[in-house]
Design brief:
Blueprint lengths: L2 H6 L11 H5 L2 E3 L20 H5 L7 E5 L4 E3 L7 E7 L1 E7 L5 E8 L3 E2 L12 E4 L3 E7 H10 L1 H27 L2 H18 L6 E3 L4 H8 L3 H13 L3 E4 L2 E4 L2 H11 L1
Helix pairs in contact: 4-5, 6-9, 7-8
Length: about 260
């Protein structure tokens, strides 16, 4: 299988143009090149030389603005683009056979959305903004063509795909092996690491998702998630004020993971 075919076997992301005119009002030409973006260490140029990253300027990016609650694309929509999160927070989810929403992940600044659409040229997930957000829209056909001429870009696309696979595997292990307290703790520490990688505070952050969405992601009931948060707070490990979370004792939280292994 050639590299382009391999990409199509793994990636698919596209916005669903339910109301194309309304959506077009929130789209603009991206004013910043990948090579000069302050998120380049997290996004497509990550690991590429400055000279290679300059070639990304040939890609015709646009920006799409979304309000909290807006849908970037829906499951079943045709795939033609990837999306780099410039700002904001998203959740991905699928609808189960009995009509329930199953959260599959949370995406934040510097991450690429849309890899779920490559295999069948249709998206398998729905992506919704959890707060006001901006994404860079990357036409996949252009990206494929450029990757065929730029090995460093091809490697980075492979890294992005691999990262998604590793996350999925880690989540499967988490759900299969850890009790509720360990799952919630791992979730909070994972967010801490992701915020730190973006230059934000590792111990204090805002949860953009609800307790119910966290429970869906972790395979726990809402009541269980709430009880674990309360237990961690009573133990002095965290402090929670509505959506604001302060991880007060990183060592203690890590110890919970050690005890859950």
């Amino acid at each position: 299988m050639g590299s382009a075919a391999a990409f199509r076997a793994i990636d698919k992301n596209l916005p669903i143009p339910i109301n194309h005119r309304a959506a077009s009002k929130n789209i603009e030409r991206c004013p910043i090149l990948c090579s000069s973006c302050n998120l380049r260490h997290l996004c497509l140029p990550c690991g590429m030389t400055d000279a290679d990253a300059e070639f990304l300027g040939d890609l015709h990016f646009t920006r799409r603005h979304l309000k909290r609650g807006d849908t970037l694309y829906r499951a079943g929509a045709s795939f033609d683009s990837l999306y780099a999160v410039r700002s904001g927070f998203f959740k991905s989810y699928a609808i189960t056979e009995d009509g329930r929403e199953q959260v599959t992940g949370f995406q934040m600044t510097g991450e690429i959305i849309g890899l779920d659409g490559i295999e069948n040229d249709k998206h398998s997930l729905t992506i919704k903004a959890l707060d006001d957000a901006v994404v860079c829209v990357i036409q996949f056909t252009q990206l494929e063509e450029m990757a065929s001429r730029l090995p460093a870009l091809q490697r980075q696309i492979h890294r992005l795909m691999s990262r998604e696979i590793v996350r999925d595997q880690s989540m499967m292990m988490l759900l299969g092996a850890m009790p509720a307290e360990g799952r919630v703790t791992a979730f909070l520490l994972g967010l801490s690491q992701r915020f730190a990688a973006r230059g934000y505070a590792a111990s204090e952050f805002i949860l953009r998702m609800t307790r119910e969405e966290i429970g869906s992601y972790l395979g726990l009931k809402l009541e269980t998630v709430s009880r674990v948060f309360s237990r961690l707070q009573q133990s002095g490990l965290i402090d929670v004020q509505q959506k604001h979370v302060h991880l007060r004792d990183m060592t203690g939280l890590q110890a919970i993971l050690g005890g859950s292994a």
